Amino acid sequence: MKNKERLLFVMLAGVVTLWGLNVVMVKYLTMFPPMYVAAIRMTIAGVFLAPILLQYRKSLRIGWANWLLAAGVGATSIALHQITLATGVQYTSAGNASLILGLNPLATALLAMVLLGEGMSWRKAWGIAIGFAGVLIVVISQHGGIHVNGWGDAIMFFSMLMYVAGGLLIRKLSLRGVPVLLITVLSQWFGVLFLWIAALMVQPASYYIGLDVTPFQWLVILTSAVLSTAVGSVGWNYGIRQLGASRTAVFLNGMPLASLLFAALFLGEQLLLVHLLALLMIVGGVYLGSRSQLKPNSAPGVVPSDITTKA
Fold this sequence. Notes:
mainly alpha, 14 helices, about 0% strand, globular
């Protein structure tokens, strides 16, 4: 293995570890209103991503149709995803949340079949069934059935679907020749706009300004926004360009595991055998489902929507 490739592997492992930790950080911040947590995190991330626009300043004339698609990405995979993520973790554990978010690639394959008419092989269908069964086992084992106490898991499931919906729009934009990093920045700022509109509809600006945030809480917010969202997005897209889509996608399987371990370490959540069983089922399901859609020599420039960025 070349030194450059080894460094890329370390970088990608670090990115998915940060994404796993991000769920725990958002769970820690549940003492604040979900709208505030989502809006302030995404605004900070947007500021750090903004310099990328300089690189693509000659590519901003993408046409109104593509601008609307970018706004759609911002509304779904940024605004709605972040609001429901910050809300969902208030009512469920970070471990459960991470397992549900781990269904992203499988849900993408399922919705791509329904909405885009993509093919569905038996291998992919089995992968989807196994992955979803793993999450269902966790939800039912902890709640004794799907009832009011399981609303947090239901909200997280919707959060995951919103991210997937944005991913399908990203796929459409990338096929139209819009660079993925440019899509990332544009959708980020559309998402920030929508988040603050929603936040100010719930509470006036004076309410958010008056919130008492400790230095440590600011550190958590900054770590989540800058390292997980901004740096993580750039690092992930760089990895895809260098290694190709299929090799990079393998690292996604580490995100739920990282979340489970960090939740047990920092939040004192119990790491149960049922979590490990669900993790194995989700990883196995993603492996089965992705093998049929990602070729071994996927071109670095071709970026499937389910492995672009994680907010």
